[in-house]
Amino acid sequence: MKQNTGLEELASEIADASVFLERAEEQLARRIIGQKDVLHRVFIALLTNGHILLEGVPGLAKTLIVRTFASAMSLAYQRIQFTPDMLPADLVGTMVYNPKEMVFYPRKGPVFANIILADEINRSPAKVQSALLEAMQERQVTIGDRTFLLAEPFMVLATQNPLEHEGTYLLPEAQLDRFMMKVMVDYPSYEEELDIMDRSAGTGLDPDVDSVVEKDEIDRARSLIERLYADIRVRRYIVDLVTASRDPVTAGVRSLEHMIEYGASPRASIFLFLAAKAHAFLRRRAYITPEDVREVSYDVLRHRIRPTYEAEADNVKPEDCIGEILSRVRVP
Question: Which residues contact residue 319 at a Cβ distance below 8 angstroms, ignoring those fewer than 6 apart?
C-alpha cells in the first residue's frame, strides 16, 4: 500500500515536470514534419545523458532535426562537418601562442556546446574519432596539458550515411558502444512528403522556433527518471535480452547459434534500462514495463550485435537477430 502511494505521488510529480515536453513538441512541429520516432529517441537520450547515432540516406532532415531540437530546448548548438582531412584540433581546439605576452593559451573548438551535431561522422579519420571518444565518454577535453570539462547537458548526435555509400568508413566498435542508440531515419510517408514539398515550395524559409525549455526543467526530469520504479522481473528481463545476444543457445534461441559473431556488452544493459525508464517518463508513468524495454530494444542493440559471415551471406541483419531474441525470451 505504501509503495502504491509512493508511485502515485511520483506520477503526480512526473505529470507536472513533463509539461515542458508539450511545449517543445509544439515548437518542433513547426519545422519538422513526421519523424516522431526519431524525435522521441532524441528526447530519451537527452533525459538520460546519452548520445545518438543517426543513420539514413542524405536529404532526410537529420541536420534540421538536431538544429531545431537544440533551438526548442534552449541549448547551445554546434554543427561539425566531418571530412577525411579533419584534425583533432578542428574538433576540440588547440593551444595558440600569444607573441605579445609570450604565452600559450587554449582556443576552444566547436565541441564546447550542449548539442553537437557530428555530421557524416563515418567520413573522418581515426585520430578524430579518438578525440570525440574522450568527449563522449569522459565529458571532458584535453588541450595541450590542460583538461576542460564540457557543458551540461552535453549530447552528441552523429549522422552517418549507410556504409554502402562511397567514401565512408566503419566506426570503431569502442566508439559505437558509446552511443546509447543507433536510430534509423527513414523516408517520410506519402502524405508527409507532400506536406514537405508544399511547405518548402511555399516560402522557402524555415518557420521560427522559440526556445521554450529551461535547463532546470531538464535537470528535474532527469532526477525524476532516476526514481522510476523498476520491478526485479523487468530488470532481469533486460539482462536476459542482452545476454541472449551473447549466448543464444543457453537463452533458448537456438536459431541464432551460428548467426552472431559477438553480442552486446554490459553497457547495453545499462542503456536499455535507462532508455526504458525515459520511455516510461515520456508516457507519464512512474514505473517501467516490459513493453518499455521492447520499445527501445532495437535502437539500443542494433549497433552492438554483429552477425557472422555466415549470417551476412544469408542476408541476416542485426534487426533480425534482435527480433528473434524478443520473440524467444520469456516476457515477465
Answer: 298, 302
Do 71 and 200 form a contact (C-beta atoms < 8 A)?
no
User: Strands (DSSP E) along 224-300, which ranges?
Assistant: 260-262
User: CATH 3.40.50.300: does it fit domain 2-200?
Assistant: yes
pLDDT at position 1 over 50? no
What is the homologous superfamily of the domain 228-328 according to CATH? Magnesium chelatase subunit I, C-Terminal domain (1.10.8.80)
Q: Are the beta carbons of 123 and 167 closer than 8 angstroms?
A: yes
What is d(CA 249, CA 240) in angstroms, rounded to the nearest whole number? 12
Angle of helix 290-301 versus helix 36-47 axis, rounded to 10:
100
Q: Judge whether residue 165 has pLDDT over 60.
A: no
Q: Per-domain residue ranges for the chain?
A: 2-200, 228-328
Read off the pLDDT of residues 266-320 as tens digits, 9 standing for 90 and up: 999 999 999 999 999 999 999 999 999 999 999 999 999 999 898 888 888 999 9
Cβ atoms 32, 65 nearer than 8 A: yes
Q: How much is the pTM?
A: 0.90
Whether the CB-CB separation of 42 and 65 falls below 8 Å is answered with yes
